[in-house]
Write a structure and sequence with these properties.
The chain has about 950 residues and is an alpha+beta fold. The chain is built from 31 helices and 23 strands. Strand 9 and strand 10 (about 340-345) form a beta hairpin.
């Protein structure tokens, strides 16, 4: 579901939303502003402490912000703040390298990570409430004792990791280099925002140990940090714990906030960047007011009006009506020194950047000259407000704790929520027009165009390690305290009651699953059908996805624009889609507008009209999406792996888009036929969670779905799996900077009795950050930014896979290590410590699966789709607790055989094939960017 991102910037980003506004539905009443009772205190050493007591679940979010980012980097050290973020996860004075991750994961931590923004760097974990002290112990040791043990080995390793991250997320990401060029064009050289947060290869590699020490000393003291603790806490006891772990740490030097003048753009700037993409993309960017300054919120509303999804002006004009664009977006990104307003539009095949530019300019000029309508402004406000409230559902990650830290940094007031909503609600059409006229002038913009071609990448080899004399010990910043060397003991295990949901059925066979959660005035629903890609005819892969996509494109009484308009005017978000096992219609709405939004859902599910003109529009959209899919090496690897494991006669051998011939061949009769067979109430469940009672839901369900005609659920016979005999599958992508790998085999179905043991085994192998694979390939060898493994667990047997993007010159070595780690899982029993950590990570993190309405809905949906018992999650906890060393080795031996694994590699053939041939995998099977076997004449 496309919901605007409301973190940095808070309400000031307008990612694609899900609707357009018409005049039919009345404007929803403003939702009551939720009360967040927080306490803010400042410790004597300057640490800001913000506490929020929330008893919804026995979990606690710990969110620590250091008020430092690229704005504080020295010249020639772009990316240093981000590199330093990585360094904070190395060894500290009392915690050996890797031990913090192992302990936190073993304690059931979720959302455990760090992040670097332009103005701040954050570190966060969500832990069971009895493990709060463990999280504080870890974060305090990083703040107080990192320098005690910092060494060159740790720095060199993280330089390798971060450079791999750059290769994967900037150079290997479609249009990543184009976006980087936009920042370099908007801001002058030397400006803190002129380089991407990740920095350049040269600057990352050029960082020295003394730079790291100086940066830590200057910016990582308690007086430059704010700590939010939100969740199941006792405030008094929590303050005592914070004083124990942080109170004795010495404050650092006073931090002087950077005073940077951002010169305005007075003449248009233009740049063209070549990238490994098939479709051109146009970026237009402007410098705009800093976060929370006059004009900032108005431009957020303008971004939603202009490019916020199907309701936006650019979508209507360029995608829907003229069909010259594949996608559109506009975003106001709010920062401390200067914000940016960016419009980006991808061309449809056969259309040029010049066409896009002229069309965008026309819409911008119309907005400047005539302004928006009050209905458009109201629609944008409603969408942003719903998304803001939705961001408060989650305690950790990018949820409530992060939001309070964001407010604290940018406004000095963690409780700025009411003022934030008030400024949003005050905005009218005239204010938006003034902001657009003032800030989005044609001569004040940067234009960056991304075109297909060979990118220019400066990726020098890392120098060979040079033996250096042992460095003198760093003077400790804080006095040694022996008690810190011992991890704290967990408190009493909290009692957990996981939501089960109440289930009832309508007379026509529709299953309704309900969970009442009145914490916020929000309701989330999912209408799920037990038919997805696995039900596709073999000659029409992608039909389930095409059908789901067409639901939003017209009914007997609503046109496609009317559907989008109505949903958006209600401040709701609706999405349709399919996976291998299911097709879904998802909805998020305020309590006050949920009934009206659900009426739209009921209409598109029961009365789609599949207009011929809309089918042709969506056909072109799917062909464009297929073109974009080929640009992403990781997606290409997944498609090639599916084709290799299932065989071409199996519907799951293809992605949800299918193949170009099938997209072109699909008829209205095919789509209507799939809908008629599979969209029946006996094949469906309506799963609703949030601020709605059972009685209210029952009345709504009867009113909206009671007349849905009863019909028998379709029988879909599982297709026969015919895997390729090849052990090596190769997709050639000339000039690729990395290799996207998948090492895969078939695994079990979701209802396997081995599920608990398999989850524990996978956690040890590659399912956790502290897994064997990640410790080996990332933390030890530096081959990759990250590697993980997982079982897909569908209704029928589904793949197990290990996935990573690795250094090109380490492709063969990476595969060798992956196969070696898989073999070790079979050959050697786990240590008791590994077993305990992986088992507890699964068991103790279960409450985190029920944190938001969407989380609860997804878990309850799983019960319906896979035929699991209502008490399944309670029983799963008991079964996980019983998993032993023998169970893990047994499932490893039965499900994982390295000699039968299929290795899929997507990269530059001439450089990676010689490495892979040394592994004795046999001759390669060559596939194309759609994952299909190529004719031998083609290669």
């Amino acid at each position: 579901m496309n919901i605007p991102t409301l973190m940095v910037p808070l309400m000031l980003a307008a990612a694609p939303a899900a609707g357009q506004a018409q005049d039919q539905p009345p404007a929803p009443a403003s939702a009551p502003i939720p009360s967040i009772a927080f306490e803010k205190t400042v410790l004597p050493n300057g640490l800001q402490l913000i506490l929020v007591e929330d008893k919804r679940l026995p979990i606690v979010a710990v969110n620590l912000w250091y008020h430092v980012g690229p704005a504080n980097e020295a010249p020639g050290l772009t990316g240093f703040a981000h590199l330093f973020e990585h360094m904070m996860f190395a060894a500290t004075g009392h915690i050996p390298r890797g031990e913090a991750d192992r302990l936190l994961e073993g304690a059931g931590a979720t959302d455990s990570n760090g992040g670097t923004g332009f103005d701040s760097t954050s570190y966060y974990d969500t832990v069971p409430s009895n493990q709060l002290e463990l999280a504080l112990w870890v974060h305090a040791d990083r703040m107080g004792f990192l320098l005690d043990v910092l060494d060159q080995q740790a720095l060199s390793n993280q330089q390798d990791v971060v450079r791999n991250e750059r290769r994967q997320t900037t150079e290997g990401e479609p249009y990543g280099l184009v976006e980087e060029a936009l920042l370099q064009t908007l801001f002058p050289k030397g400006h803190p925002y002129a380089a991407s947060i990740i920095g350049s290869h040269a600057d990352i590699q050029g960082a020295r140990l003394e730079n790291v020490r100086e940066f830590f000393t200057n910016y990582y003291g308690p007086n430059n940090a704010s700590l939010v603790i939100a969740g199941d806490i006792d405030k008094g006891k929590t303050r005592e714990l914070v004083m124990r772990y942080f109170g004795g740490l010495r404050r650092g030097p006073d931090v002087v906030r950077p005073k940077v003048v951002t010169p305005p753009i007075t003449a248009e700037r233009r740049v063209v960047v070549r990238d490994r993409v098939e479709l051109p993309r146009v970026f237009m960017g402007w410098l705009t007011p800093a976060a929370y300054q006059a004009g900032d919120a108005e431009l957020a509303v303008a971004a939603t009006i202009l490019g916020g999804g199907k309701s936006s002006r650019l979508y209507k004009a360029l995608v829907y009506e003229r069909q010259i664009a594949q996608d559109v977006s506009s975003t106001q990104t709010s920062l401390a020194l200067s914000s940016t307003f960016v419009v980006d539009v991808t061309a449809r095949a056969g259309h040029t950047p010049q066409e896009l530019e002229a069309a965008i300019d026309a819409e911008l000029e119309r907005l400047r000259k005539d302004g928006p309508s009050e209905r458009e402004v109201e629609r944008a406000r409603n969408s942003l407000e719903t998304a803001l409230l939705a961001s408060l559902e989650k305690l950790g990650g990018d949820g409530l704790a992060e939001q309070l830290n964001h407010y604290n940094l940018y406004t000095g007031d963690p409780g700025y929520l009411a003022k934030d909503l008030a400024r949003l609600r005050r905005i009218d059409a005239a204010a938006v027009q003034r902001a657009v006229q003032t800030w989005l002038k044609p001569e004040a913009r940067a234009m960056v165009t991304g075109l297909p071609g060979k990118p220019k990448i400066d990726d020098p080899r890392a120098p060979k390690p040079v033996k250096t004399a042992p460095q003198s010990a760093q003077a400790a910043l804080n006095e040694a305290e022996p008690w810190r060397a011992t991890p704290p003991v967990a408190g009493p295990t909290p009692k957990v009651t996981l939501p089960r949901g109440e289930t009832f059925k309508l007379a026509n066979g529709l299953t309704v699953i309900h969970h009442h959660n009145p914490a916020l005035p929000l309701v989330s629903s999912q209408l799920v059908l037990k038919s997805g890609g696995a039900a596709n005819p073999v000659d029409l892969p992608g039909l389930a996805g095409f059908t789901a996509q067409m639901l939003e494109e017209g009914t007997a009484t609503r046109s496609a624009p009317q559907i989008a308009d109505e949903v958006a005017q209600l401040g709701a978000f609706m999405d349709t889609g399919s996976s291998d096992d299911v097709s879904t219609v998802s909805l998020l709405a305020l309590r006050a507008t949920f009934a009206r939004a659900l009426e739209v859902v009921a209409d598109i599910v029961q009365h789609p009209s599949f207009p011929a003109a809309e089918i042709e529009r969506q056909r072109q959209d799917r062909l464009g999406s297929l073109t974009q899919q080929r640009d992403d090496p990781e997606t290409v690897a997944a498609l090639a792996a599916a084709g290799a494991l299932f065989g071409s006669a199996h519907p799951k051998a293809y992605g949800q888009l299918g193949l170009e011939p099938a997209i072109r061949a699909t008829t209205r009769e095919d789509i209507a036929g799939f809908w008629k067979r599979h969209y029946v109430p006996s094949n469906a469940a309506l799963v609703v969670t949030g601020d709605i009672t059972r009685a209210e839901l029952q009345a709504l369900a009867e009113a909206q779905f009671g007349a849905w005609p009863a019909a028998d659920a379709p029988e879909v016979k599982p297709a026969e799996t015919r895997p390729t005999p090849a052990r090596l599958v190769l997709v050639d992508q000339p000039d690729a900077g990395q290799t996207a790998l998948q090492v895969a085999c078939m695994g079990p179905s979701r209802d396997t009795p081995d599920f608990p043991a398999l989850q524990v085994m996978n956690g040890v192998l590659g399912g956790m950050f502290s897994s064997r694979l990640n410790n080996n390939l990332r933390e030890t060898k530096g081959y990759t930014y990250g590697i993980y493994s997982h079982f897909d667990y569908d209704r029928t047997p589904a793949p197990f896979s290990v996935e990573a993007s690795v250094q090109q010159d380490a492709t063969g070595a990476s595969v060798r290590e992956i196969l070696r780690e898989i073999a070790a899982m079979r050959e050697q029993p786990l240590s008791q410590a590994e077993l305990d950590a992986a088992r507890n990570a699964q068991l103790l993190s279960l409450p985190g699966q029920f944190e938001t309405n969407a989380d609860i809905g997804a878990s309850l949906t799983e019960l319906f789709v896979y035929g699991l018992a209502p008490d399944y999650y309670d029983e799963l906890a008991r079964r996980l607790a019983k998993v032993g060393v023998e169970d893990v080795q047994d499932v490893a031996r039965r499900y994982l055989d390295p000699d039968k694994m299929t290795v899929v590699a997507v990269g530059e053939r001439r450089k990676i094939l010689p490495q892979l041939q040394k592994l004795g995998l046999g001759p390669p099977e060559i596939r194309d960017d759609d994952g299909q076997v190529m004719d031998k004449k083609q290669h």
